Amino acid sequence: MNLIEEFNAYRSEMNEKIMASDNKVIKRFFNLDTNTYADGAVDVKTKEMIGLACSMVLRCDDCIKYHLGKSYEAGLNKEEVFEVFSIATIIGGSIVIPHLRRAVEYWELLEKEGRQDV
Q1: pTM of the model
Q2: Which GO terms describe its molecular function (predicted)?
Q3: I need a labelling partner for 111 at 20 to 30 A (CA). Which of 14, 25, 68, 77 fits?
Q4: Distance CA 68, CA 74 (A)
C-alpha cells in the first residue's frame, strides 16, 4: 500500500468510527466542512487552493494531503499547485518548508498514479 492509499484508508476508517459515535456536534462540524468546499459563488477548484494554502500555513500534514487530493481531483495542474505552495510559503515563512517538501512528494505521487479517486 502506498502513501496515498494508506492516507485515504486510514482517513476513511477513522471517519467511520467518528461518525458511528453519533455525536451531533461532530456530525454538524463535518457537514459544515463538506458544505464549505461545495461549489458556490467561489468554485471548488479555488476553494481547494485556499484550503491547501491555509493547511500549509497551519502546518497540518493530513489537511495538506487531503486538499492536495481534492485539488488534483478538481483539475489543478502542477504549475497551479506550485503557485499555491509559493503563497503558503510566503505567508507562513520558513517553518512551512518541511511541509512543502512532503506536499511536493504527495503531489508527485498523485501525478504518477493519475488518480481520480482521491
Answers
A1: 0.91
A2: peroxiredoxin activity
A3: 14
A4: 10
